[in-house]
Amino acid sequence: MQVNFKSLVVWLILNKQADRAIKLLAEKYKVKTPHLKVGLPKGHRTKTLGCYLTKNSTITLYNRELLSNPYVILHEFYHHLRTNIEKRHKGTEKNANKFALDFIRQYNKTHYKYTKILLENPEENRKQK
């Protein structure tokens, strides 16, 4: 069974392995791996869940729980990706949202597909274990 890259990245984040997911993303897109840090920098609103700091290539998150939030991690990684391409903070919020949602949709499709297979053939799946 081949695992889709986007599904794997989302799965890793959901399973509290955001560092590993970020490293895979950086390898895939051939960019430097950004740092992950909990705690927003001074001057950022508390309504902000995360932000990307260009000067030190760091994705900062509002709190520790967001380390398992694929939408926030992927959204901020998009800004890292665009910054590496353009050498300055670039990329609209709309495109960052699309980037994150594309990964999540792929995960949902994959998850649904395999769950359906397991539910349709419970006897056969037990034999394989």
Radius of gyration: 17 Å
The sequence of SSEs as H and E is: HHEEEHHH
Tally the helices: what do you get? 5
Stretches where pLDDT is under 50 for at least 5 consecutive residues are none
Distance between the termini: 15 Å
For the biggest sheet, the summary is: 3 strands, mixed
How many individual β-strands?
3
The coarse overall form would be globular
Structural class: mainly alpha
Instruction: Output the strand order for the largest sheet.
Output: 1-3-2
The average pLDDT value, as a whole number, equals: 86
Helix content: 55-70%
Mind sketching the topology for me?
Blueprint: H1 5-14, H2 18-29, E1 35-38, E2 50-53, E3 58-61, H3 70-86, H4 93-120, H5 122-128
Parallel strand pairs: 1-3
Antiparallel strand pairs: 2-3
Helix pairs in contact: 1-2, 1-4, 2-3, 3-4
Keywords:
129 residues; mainly alpha; three-stranded mixed beta sheet; 5 helices; 9% strand
Can you characterise this structure?
- With 129 residues, the protein is mostly helical.
- It has one domain.
- A three-stranded mixed beta sheet has the order 1-3-2, covered by helices on one side.
- α1 crosses α4.
- The chain is globular.
- The mean pLDDT is 86.
What is shown here, in short?
The chain has one domain (about 5-120). It has five helices and three strands.
